[in-house]
Each structure stands twice: as C-alpha cells, then as structure tokens.
Design a protein that fits this description.
There is one protein chain. The protein has an eight-stranded mixed beta sheet with strand order 3-2-1-4-7-6-8-5. The chain starts with 7 loop residues before the first strand and ends with a helix. The chain has 233 residues and is of the alpha/beta class. It is built from eleven helices and eight strands. The longest helix is centred in the middle third of the chain and has 17 residues. It has one domain: Alpha-Beta Complex (Spore Coat Polysaccharide Biosynthesis Protein SpsA, Chain A), CATH 3.90.550.10.
Length: 233
C-alpha cells in the first residue's frame, strides 16, 4: 500500500541555539499534531541544542556548519510535498499552514511571507517595510521571510547553492526562472537581535553594501569573511 508523505515539512537550520530552540519547537507542536513534519538540521552545536530538539521534532540530522548545507541536509530527509525553511528566531503566523496550502496551487511553485521585526525602535518599522516592498517588487526573498517551495521545484534548481552567504538570494534567483514567488501578507515575526547586537544603522548599511557587492559579482566567501569580521568587531 502506498503511504503518502505530509503536505508540509518545516526545516530548521540551527547551531548553538540552546536559549531559543525549545520555545521555537514548542510553537510548532500544534502543526506537528496536524501532520506537519518538523526537521531540525544541526551544524555541530556544542551546547544542549540537540538534546532539547530531539524529542520535539520528527527528524534531527547533523551536517557541517553552514546554513545552506544544513538546509539541504534537512531537505534530503524531509518527506513533505512542500518544504518550508524557518529560522529558529522566526515565528510563523497562526494560519500559516492553511495559507501555504491555499497559495501553493499551480502555477505557484514557491513563496514567502511578509516580515515583522520584534524591536520597538522606529527604524525597525522602516526596515521591515523596505524588506517587504523590495521582495514584492523583485521576487527575491530572504531567509527571514520563511521561504517555502515545492519539493519538485527545490530539486529542479539543485537546492540551496553551496555558499556561506546570500544563499537565500541565489536560490530566489534560480526559482524566479521557474515562477515568480507568491507573497503572503500574513507576517512572520522575526527577532531583531542581529540589528540590536551589532547596531541598527551599522547592520543595515553593512547588508546593503554586501548585497551590492554580491550583485556586481563578488564571491560569497569573500563577503562572508567581511560579514564575520564586522560582526566580531
């Protein structure tokens, strides 16, 4: 007898996320009870991330560190027709499952959510507005927007590219050649910790600069070194 897989698999790439992984997975348990598959892809955590995640997911896989590598590893064990790639500090809207299934009817092959940042500073309202506007106009999505894609389309473009930065930008470029993404206006809530830790204006300018360099042909590994250097400064 043929056993069909779930409609949706959620893949979470994690590394040393002990403070966040429990709350993230607890939020997903209601979806798990409805048949959504939860896959955690660990990049070699040295804290309790793995032990905390194991009882709260369907599959826990390990790979070398690197978001693209981890997400591809998770995708290989996932069995859902649709794959959703979720950051551990991003919270899905309550009706995410229904919206994704409704949206992912032909000709739609992939999509993303609008985003809301957690910070209260007025600049976060500007940042999230620009993220959503830019993505809607260009069809380029970021990982913070919870990208979802049919397994067939994901495999057709070869998954996430093997690069340490801008993997979300690059897979968006490749998927756009198949179809323009569907943009869900329900918002995922994404932590603003990156901007708060490194400085709001510094982080915005850095990401704009890195994206500009990427679009004119700079190698992702060079950009990653620049990003890591600034983050550690």
């Amino acid at each position: 007898m043929l056993i069909e897989g779930p409609e949706l698999s959620i893949i979470l790439p994690v590394w040393n996320e002990e403070p966040l992984i429990g709350a993230c997975l607890f939020r997903l348990q209601s979806l798990r009870k409805r048949g959504v598959e939860i896959v955690v892809a660990d990049g070699g955590s040295s804290d309790r991330t793995v032990s905390l995640a194991e009882p709260l997911c369907d599959h826990l896989v390990c790979s070398t560190k690197g978001r693209a590598t981890q997400m591809n590893t998770g995708a290989r064990v996932a069995t859902g027709r649709i794959l959703l790639f979720l950051h551990v500090d991003t919270e899905l809207p309550a009706n995410a499952y229904e919206e994704i299934l409704s949206a992912m009817e032909l000709p739609h092959l992939w999509g993303r959510f609008d985003v809301k940042l957690t910070g209260s500073h007025f600049m976060f309202r500007f940042i999230e507005h620009m993220m959503n506007l830019r993505s809607g106009l260009t069809g380029i999505a970021t990982g913070d927007q919870a990208i979802f894609v049919t397994r067939a389309a994901f495999e057709q473009v070869g998954g996430f590219p093997d690069q340490p930065l801008m993997e979300d930008i690059e897979i968006s470029r490749r998927l756009k050649k198949l179809a323009f993404p569907v943009s869900l206006k329900s918002r995922v809530i994404t932590s603003s910790r990156r901007w708060e830790e490194n400085g709001i204006y510094t982080t915005v300018l850095l990401m704009w600069w890195l994206r500009f360099l990427y679009f004119i042909g700079a190698h992702p590994r060079v950009l990653h070194k620049m990003y890591e250097k600034k983050a550690q400064a």
